[in-house]
What does this fold into?
Amino acid sequence: MIAKIAFLHKPYDLKIQEVELPPLKPNQVLVQVGACGICGSDVECFEGHSAEGRYDIAPYTPGHEWGGKIIEVGSDVKGLKVGNKVTGDCVMACGVCVNCKEGLMPSACLNMREMGFRPDSPGGMGEYMIAEEQYVHAIPDDWSYEMGAWVETFSIGYFGIWGNDGYIDASDMALIIGGGPVGLSAAMVAKTSGAKTIVADPIESRRERALKYGADIVLDPKLSDYYDQLLQVTNGRGPDVIVEASGNDNAIASMFDVAGHSCRVNLIGHSIGRRIPLEIGKTIWRTLRIKGSGGTKDFAQRTIRFMSAIKDKYDFEALNTHKIPFVDLHQAMDIAAHQKDTAFKVMLKFGI
It folds into this structure.
């Protein structure tokens, strides 16, 4: 089968090419892609600002936020069938190395692959993709492909709070730093869990949107009295839970100034490769508990159930501010890169 698939060769060198798909291995499925979201990390790789995309070793197909349907299954596939609507994991742990067998996070896998970032891994920016069954998850038949493409994003916000022994409940006051797609996912999780939910973002349109997606209160972190406002809305205590979803240097440093005593600090915004000056000693005197999460171990099925439970309350469809045909990929990438005030989620469409 011939398929049109995008390949990123180097910064700004993104091409749609026709390729012959290989036959399926026994444990693989063939997916016809229906929608693929453009993530901020895709833009950073496209612009050459991130080393996560591995075009240093070969061109690769971007796209880790996708939804599609299975049109063929390998001979050993047991849990999926032709016609299933599906989505998939991003961080692809092998399951057999010593770290995987010890139950460590997918990022600890000694043979880690990463969907949408490496030439040895599939990506969603193409008409079809081939993936092993273990990384593919069925979504409800009544979901749109765009909703399926939101699972990976939502899982980061969900796991960022609840994964690795995290928790949140109605006694907590939560601060979500960053009102982008991951930040709003975390806000919806916090609000659904009953916490008083605060979202901080410097972009006015994102603050306004956050009020529709879980935020009880929104704050502008660039204001001179931001810290005073935060103390006021948290009854002088500071937040019990922080989710850093922006990856911004100043935002990361600010966590140690605004965190309440014994705050659970969850780092999910990408900042790898940068050193950030901060007052780390405050972690001692405030007894802060800090955790990260490389991948979302065993959370895809839970994420799908969580999203099913809240999809009638929160309009995921409205988060897709731009829907652009796959053939206009360069236009879509340009919008995602340069219209961040209005382009909340750019979604590639494939016409199925």
